[in-house]
Structure prediction request, 175 residues.
Amino acid sequence: MSAQTMSVEVREMSLAETHLVIDYFRSSTPEYLEMLGVDPTRLPDRDTWSERFKQLYLMPLERRWGLYVVWLLDNEPVGFSSCDKIAFGKQAHMHLHVTRPDQRQCGIGTQCVRQSVEIYFSKLKLSRLLCEPNAFNVGPNRTLQKAGFRYLKTHTTVPGPLNYHQAVTRWVIER
Prediction:
């Protein structure tokens, strides 16, 4: 199925769907997590992670530390995106994950990123959205470029609480 004929939908993730995030990371191989720049020793256990999501979803949007969207293909989850480092009304940092290996490198990520961007700009009243994938993970870097993000720089940092120190490529989209 080509990217043009796929029926994709992106919408806010419900609390009941947050297990998709937990399952994705907790069931990934160490090699795959390394490609993402994720340190497996930093992954919370399932109960702790579920509790964090419950607390997040109790907060008003303006005060949340994260916002999650689910990517659906023919009403089945194939990935998700999240925002963190949110400065409501200003900027946030986006993350993207195609969770189904059979759907990687077929164009679904670009479509879903574009729709995710619209949700983040609208819900969080953003003027700027950043994304910093591992510099050596070609897939998300190509996806961001195709989705209209602009390259800013490559640098080393610890991008988030699940990550180790690594080279990342910083991308931005502004309104």
